[in-house]
Specification:
CATH superfamily of the largest domain: NAD(P)-binding Rossmann-like Domain
Helix content: 25-40%
Number of strands: 13
Radius of gyration: 24 Å
Shape: elongated
Mean pLDDT: 94
Length: about 450
């Protein structure tokens, strides 16, 4: 999308022109609201590209951890936290007034679901109100959180306008969705292309001026609504295709066909196919949640997203399917679920990260406990079961060694972390129910356990 930037700024306000110069010269200070799995990687990319950062979070524990150089997001590494602790270019704060000094305020806050799978914009709206309280001429506010089309313009702008400043003249507003892939090599915040769309052309170009100097590629779109919709499409695409392969897994299992081998065979086609893999259910802060933002908004304008909703039903049902496979496997060994000793292997929502948000392992733990099983878990990245909205367990990660493994009736693999010794598991367990095809990494002659894929 080509634009005439000179023409856009020819009639722009003095505040816009001065802000553009700050972004281009990298003299701008960037405020990050939310120092979690999105805000901190973005801060890292900004710092690495010469900008100074004001990091804000309402959680004082995060501010204290940063001031002490103590890591609370493992995949960023201890070195990153030590770096920002010592850096003169990074200031961590729980005082919103410090954001007055920021030239850009980037909102990196959660967008979860409510009790009835409706969008919960409370974090977005609360942080927008906070931004409105400190807003001054010459600032741009950018939302990075995933949301439904129209949030930036119709939900945020009216709140910011209450400051008395004029959008497009005094302050500027844009949307640029986060695209985080924690734990994946070569996919840091600075390496992933970024979408940028403002509520007007000036805001778009100002946001482009910032992000194009921070990420590998910034892609301009015509509006905030296009960027909001594109973010939903990205994750709905994944959710729908994962549902497809999960449904095939259930069907093929009853036909005694290995779905994992089927996917590998289909991958040999060099066009028209992209591999997706089955699992125990969806996890993380995007794929289990984002489709519901579209389905809710669609109903508001008189449409039903049947395809998306069906995918949600399939994926949501996977933990129940996993439990049924565990029950079948135990029954084969003349054991009941009630009283069985079961070790859940993996609590994080994806491998090699310490992020348990929306993890299907939590629902599976709950169902196992309700069935009367004695449940433990092991996860080298999640030492203690975290506080969650819908789940509460007083559990800590248990060690795995030959003696402990042999004491379980079933090892249930939910998350296939690379730093788990699957050969050790296979050689000492009695029964393994594998939802990730992890045991295929181990030579068959080294596996003494009976392995069931789920």
């Amino acid at each position: 999308m080509e634009v005439d930037k000179d023409a856009i700024f020819k009639g722009a306000s003095k505040a816009a022109v001065e802000l553009l110069e700050k972004f281009e010269s990298k003299t701008a200070r960037i405020g990050i609201v939310g120092l979690g799995y999105v805000g901190l990687p973005l801060s890292k990319a900004l710092l690495e590209n010469g900008y100074s950062v004001i990091g804000f979070d309402v959680d004082q524990r995060k501010i204290d951890a940063i001031s002490e150089g103590r890591s609370y997001i493992k995949h960023l590494g201890d070195g990153f936290f030590e770096m920002i602790q010592k850096s003169d270019s990074f200031h961590a704060t729980a005082d919103k007034q410090d954001l007055r000094d920021a030239d850009a305020i980037l909102l990196c806050v959660p967008t979860p679901l409510g009790k009835h799978d409706d969008p919960d914009l409370s974090y977005v709206l609360d942080s927008t109100r906070m931004a409105a309280e400190v807003l001054r001429p010459g600032q741009i506010v950018v939302l990075e959180s995933t949301t439904y089309p129209g949030t930036t313009r119709h939900e945020m702008q009216p709140i910011l306008d209450e400051s008395g400043l004029v959008c497009g003249e005094d302050y500027f507003l844009a949307y640029s969705p986060e695209r985080e892939d924690p734990g994946s090599a070569g996919r840091s915040a600075g390496e992933i292309p970024k979408l940028v769309g403002g509520v007007d052309d000036v805001a778009t170009e100002l946001a482009m001026a910032l992000y194009s100097r921070v990420v590998a590629k910034a892609h301009r779109v015509s509006s905030a609504e296009v960027a909001e919709s594109a973010k939903l499409l990205e994750n709905i695409y994944r959710a729908v295709n994962i549902a497809l392969i999960n449904e095939m897994k259930v069907v093929l299992n009853d036909m005694d066909v290995d779905v994992w081998e089927v996917v590998e065979a289909a991958k040999t086609k060099p066009f028209g196919f992209q591999a997706f893999y089955p699992g125990p259910g969806l996890g993380g802060h995007c794929i289990p949640i984002d489709p519901f933002y579209l389905t809710w908004k669609a109903k508001e304008v008189g449409h039903q997203t049947r395809f998306v909703e069906l995918a949600g039903e399939v994926n949501t049902a996977m933990p129940k399917y996993v439990i049924s496979r565990v029950a079948e496997a135990l029954n084969h060994d003349r054991l009941a679920m009630n009283g069985a000793n079961i070790l859940v292997l993996g609590m994080a929502y994806k491998k090699n990260v310490d992020d348990p948000r929306e993890t299907p392992a939590a629902e599976i733990l709950k169902r196992l406990a309700e069935a009367g099983s004695n449940v433990s878990y092991h996860d080298p990245h999640v030492p203690r079961f975290p506080e969650m909205r819908r789940y509460k367990f007083d559990l800590e990660s248990q060690p795995v060694n030959p003696e402990s493994i042999s004491g379980y009736d079933c090892i249930l693999i939910i998350t296939d972390h690379d730093d788990v010794d699957y050969e050790l598991i296979g050689s000492h367990a009695r029964l393994i129910v594998d939802t990730r095809n992890a045991m295929d990494r181990v030579p068959r002659n080294l596996i003494k356990a009976r392995c069931v894929k789920a």
